[in-house]
Write a structure and sequence with these properties.
This protein is α+β, with helices and mostly antiparallel strands and 280 residues long. It folds into two domains: 3-49 and 245-279, no CATH class; 57-236, no CATH class. It contains eight helices and eleven strands. It has helices at 3-13, 15-51, 66-72, 82-87, 145-151, 187-194, 217-228, 238-279; strands at 57-61, 79-80, 95-108, 111-118, 140-143, 158-161, 164-171, 182-186, 199-200, 202-207, 232-236. The strands form two sheets. A nine-stranded mixed β-sheet has the order 6-7-5-8-4-3-10-1-11. Strands 2-9 form a two-stranded antiparallel sheet.
């Protein structure tokens, strides 16, 4: 009798044992694939949710009063818009997202508000990622809740600021923060209104040092930025950075434990069945 014939007769003779062995292998493979897939999906979803916490790195011009910046989130100094392009150079800076902004406090229609110009968000070359901040087309504006409420503004209306006309495309929901007293527009529109062509006041960033083995990642980031832009300051929103790092490390750690456990458990199961066969 041939070897395949002997194997077939053995299977028919020990149907229950064979079915249990097949089940063990199937479960091991299925669980490994499912946990691996779930792990990848969880990391992606966690990254997306963590991004909603906002940017954790602020790069501002040299000479900025850090106390005033931390208090108001604004700086009265500017830097060239080209600094954004320099930071975006491949391998020059460990980042996932970069956003150039120009912000100034202005008086308009009897209100004190913040005019915010937003540049299109920059991601590392070759990496397509959804933007953290929705891009604002030129000639349009997003109006904060308090401004829209007090001036009875609606989407579709045309407003004029310092001779520049902007169409309101969205009145923002109440945020409970400075966004409620902001008018957001494209960076070029803000530069025109404020008469600051080619200038920005801040570069916001999300670093990608979540898994670097160091207790002080901001020092690494400051060295990287200083090698490219020596005349800026780097301010880290540490609670956001730490929360993002701990969450992503926790997700990876959970699946790093579960997957080997499942594989080992199924291996022991198969080993016990093999031992029973040998004994019989």
């Amino acid at each position: 009798m041939t070897t395949p014939g002997l194997i077939l007769r053995e299977i028919l003779h020990r149907k229950t044992n064979f079915l249990l062995s097949v089940l063990a292998v199937t479960v091991a493979v299925a669980l490994f694939i499912s946990f691996f897939t779930a792990g990848v999906a969880s990391e992606r979803e966690t990254a997306r949710l963590m991004l909603q916490m906002g940017y954790n790195l602020h790069i501002v011009p040299e000479g900025t009063d850090r106390s005033e910046f931390l208090l108001t989130g604004l700086t009265d100094r500017t830097m060239p818009q080209q600094y954004l392009e320099k930071l975006a150079t491949p391998s020059a800076f460990s980042y996932n997202h970069l956003l150039g902004t120009l912000q100034r406090r202005i008086s308009w229609q009897g209100l004190e508000l913040v005019l915010t110009g937003l540049a299109p968000e920059v991601c590392p070359p070759g990496q397509k990622q959804p933007p953290m901040v929705e891009p604002i087309p030129q000639g349009t504006a997003y109006v904060g809740y308090i401004i829209a409420d007090r001036l009875k503004l609606k989407a579709g209306q045309i407003i004029e600021i310092a001779g520049k006309q902007l169409k309101i495309v969205r009145c923002l929901f109440e945020q409970g923060g400075v966004d409620d007293i902001c008018i957001q527009c494209h960076l070029k529109d803000a530069q025109e209104i404020l008469k600051l062509p080619g200038r920005i006041s801040e570069i916001q960033a999300v670093d990608c040092l979540c898994f670097v083995d160091t207790n002080d990642p901001v020092s690494i980031l400051r060295k990287e930025v200083a090698s490219i832009l020596p005349d800026v300051q780097v301010v880290q929103a540490r609670p956001i950075a730490m929360a993002r790092t701990k969450q992503r490390q926790m997700i990876q750690g959970v699946f790093a434990v579960i997957v080997p456990f499942v594989v080992i458990a199924c291996g022991i199961w198969i080993g016990i069945l093999a031992a029973i066969n040998v004994r019989d």
